[in-house]
Structure formats: C-alpha cells, structure tokens
C-alpha cells in the first residue's frame, strides 16, 4: 500500500508540474461495495481526490468511507437500505440512525443527501411501498429537529420501471398501480425542494429489443433519432427521452416544480451471450459520449436550460453481485485500480493507466471529452 501511495503521489506531482488539470467536477459516481476484493476506502480516497472526482453515492453510510473522505471536497449521497424502511418510520429509530450514522461525520465530510430506500417499486412486496414515504418524512423531520435540514436533503432512487408509458416522451405516465404513492412522494419533494431520482439504463431497453432499437441511438452516436409528434422536439439519444418521459409523468399528476436527476446509469463491459450489446467497446462509447454531453452542460430537449445531473454506475466491478454476468461488470475500474476501458479527460490531456498497484504510467489517451473522471 505504501508503494501504491508513493506512486500515486508521484503521478499527480508529474501532472501538476506539466500544467495538466484533471477535471472531475460535475459527474457523480455510485460507489458500490458488493465485492470481496475492493481497495480500502483510504486508497479509493487518494485515487478519486487526486483525480478531482467531486460526487459519490453510497448505498449505505459506511463509516470507513465517510472517514476516509474527511476534509475532502467530495460530496456524498448516503443510503438507508430497504430493510430499514419500517424502522425509519419510528421517530426514535430515525433519530438514532441520524445521530449514529450521519451526525458524527458532518463536520469533516460533505454529506448533502440521504437516499431512503433504493428502487422500492421494483419489489413485489406492497408493504415496502407503503413504508417508503413515512420513512422519508421521518428522516426529514429528524433532520429538521436537529437543525440539519438545510444541509442534508432527503430523497429516494426509483427504477425506470415506475414509468408505465415512455413513448413518446411527452406522453410519459407513471404505472397505474403506483400513482397514489407518486402523488404523495412528489408532494414531499415539492415541499422539501428535494430532487426526484431515477435509475435509467438504455442498455436494458436495447438488450430486450435489439432488432427494434438503434444501437447508435442508445450509445449517443450519430443517428437519425426521433421526433416527438406532440411537441416536435427531436431526440438523438434514449437517455434524454427517458428523463423527459419522467418529467412528463410528474407533470401529468400536477407537478412542474420538481427536478429529475439520474441516480444511476451505465453500460456493462461484459455480459452473458444473451445480453446483447454488453461489450467493452459499447461501454466505452456510452460513457465517453455521455461525459462529453455533461461537459457541455446539455439539458434534455424538454428541459434545455437544466443541465443533466448524472451519477454513473459504478466505480468498481463488484464480483459478489448476484444475477447475470453484466451485473458484475458495470465498473469503470477493476479492483486493482486499472480502468476497465479508457475514460478520457478534456481534449487530449494525458490519461491515467494503472498497469498494477505498484506500476503507474502516464500515457496519451483517446481524445474522448470526459466531464468527470479519471
């Protein structure tokens, strides 16, 4: 570990001396840890801070991670798992959670948001649906009581499957079975000025219908795109169409005052033979092209003045994730710090290639414009 740290410091000294500015501001990254071979949070902290990555999203409130990033400029979304939602509706348990998992770290670590639950409406258990909003409200009320609500907001991340109709984007609607829940959740967002988080993966749509969906359209490559017949707005990629479908669904039940942010998106670099499109080349194109658009502060066709706000999934390949092969291959990095594919910097700046934990080279990289990453 000592050798690793020394080499990292030498590398970033070289970059500083050469006048290279590594741009990381803006893009968020999901830092999942369902693996048994990941580097320690302290090593991750050195790597990401030196590369100027500015925002991370956790699925818990791991104290080792929050301590490792103390006195850094990295902003965190921390998570409360679905298994705790029923407890969080209890004011005593909610206060205990905040005082144990959040408050001790706020002085040194920038925690700006709590995501209460994750993809709750993917579950077939309707009891957990009913537990979600009471938990969100109680955590928010706890923050208010402790004087922390101006510093930390409360939200939850939804799967894109909450959308019943997504085409054309202007006709986006929520699923009928969750409309009543969405009404109440959006009222909460409106009252607390917190964002609506959506996990959006064009990969899933392409994998399920590769004969009907253009690969270029989902990868942000040049393509004919499609025009929404109701608005005459032109879409050249699926992610923007998905986001605008969510905005339309929100508007359809009476809200125009809630911002949509992308809490997860990504593309796997490997998959099962049946997972069409899950290749290294496609993963590199998806991330490269997305990051270029983020750098340009693009908005969607329906919200051109609101730059898309994105958290990419995920930081590392996670070898213990269940499910198809793709689930273990969404990472930007292998656990040893090696990039899974080339992630460009602005223009032709040098990229950072970790050939091993103790052998780090600075190399000329493809000129993909990357808003955020290493």
From TrEMBL:
Signal sequence interval, chain numbering: 1-24
A GO MF term: glucan endo-1,3-beta-D-glucosidase activity
Record keywords: Glycosidase, Hydrolase, Signal
Enzyme Commission designation: 3.2.1.39
Pfam families assigned to the protein according to its UniProt record, in alphabetical order: Glyco_hydro_17
Broad EC category: hydrolase
GO BP annotation list: carbohydrate metabolic process
Record InterPro entries: GH (IPR017853), Glyco_hydro_17 (IPR000490), Glyco_hydro_17_plant (IPR044965)
Catalysed conversion reaction: Hydrolysis of (1->3)-beta-D-glucosidic linkages in (1->3)-beta-D-glucans
The keyword Transmembrane is assigned to this record: no
Record-linked PANTHER family: GLUCAN ENDO-1,3-BETA-GLUCOSIDASE BG1-RELATED-RELATED
Family of the protein in this entry: Belongs to the glycosyl hydrolase 17 family.
Annotated protein name in UniProt: glucan endo-1,3-beta-D-glucosidase
Organism: Populus deltoides
């Amino acid at each position: 570990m000592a050798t690793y740290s020394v080499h990292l410091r030498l590398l970033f000294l070289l970059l500083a001396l050469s006048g290279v500015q590594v741009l990381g501001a803006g893009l968020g990254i999901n830092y999942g840890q369902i693996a048994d071979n990941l580097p320690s949070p302290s090593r991750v902290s050195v790597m990401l801070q030196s590369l100027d990555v500015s925002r991370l999203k956790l699925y818990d409130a791991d104290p080792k991670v929050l301590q490792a990033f103390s006195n850094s400029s990295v902003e965190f979304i921390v998570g409360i798992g679905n298994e705790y939602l029923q407890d969080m509706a209890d004011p005593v348990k909610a206060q205990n959670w905040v005082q144990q998992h959040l408050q001790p770290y706020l002085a040194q670590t920038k925690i700006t948001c709590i995501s209460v639950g994750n993809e709750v409406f993917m579950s077939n258990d309707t009891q957990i649906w009913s537990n979600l909003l009471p938990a969100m409200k109680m955590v928010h009320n706890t923050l208010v009581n402790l004087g922390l609500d101006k510093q930390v907001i409360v939200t939850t991340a939804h799967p894109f499957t909450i959308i019943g109709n997504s085409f054309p984007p202007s006709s986006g609607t929520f699923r009928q079975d969750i409309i009543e829940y969405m009404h109440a959740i959006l009222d909460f967002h409106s009252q607390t000025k917190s964002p609506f988080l959506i996990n959006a993966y064009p990969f899933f749509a392409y994998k399920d219908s590769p004969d009907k969906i253009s690969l270029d359209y989902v990868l942000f490559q040049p393509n004919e795109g499609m025009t929404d017949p109701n608005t005459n707005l032109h879409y050249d990629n699926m992610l923007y169409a998905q986001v605008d479908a969510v905005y339309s669904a929100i508007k359809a039940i009476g809200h125009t005052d809630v911002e949509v942010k992308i809490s997860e998106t990504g593309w796997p670099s490997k998959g099962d033979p049946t997972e069409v499109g899950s290749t290294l080349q496609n993963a590199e194109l998806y991330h490269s092209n997305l990051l270029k658009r983020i750098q340009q502060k693009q908005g969607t066709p329906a919200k051109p003045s609101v730059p898309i706000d994105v958290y990419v999934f995920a930081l590392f390949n996670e070898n213990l994730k269940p499910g198809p092969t793709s689930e273990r291959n969404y990472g930007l990095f292998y656990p040893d710090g090696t990039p899974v594919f080339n992630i460009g910097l602005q223009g032709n700046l040098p990229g950072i290639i970790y050939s091993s934990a103790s052998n780090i080279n600075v190399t000329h990289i493809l000129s993909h414009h990357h808003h955020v990453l290493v």
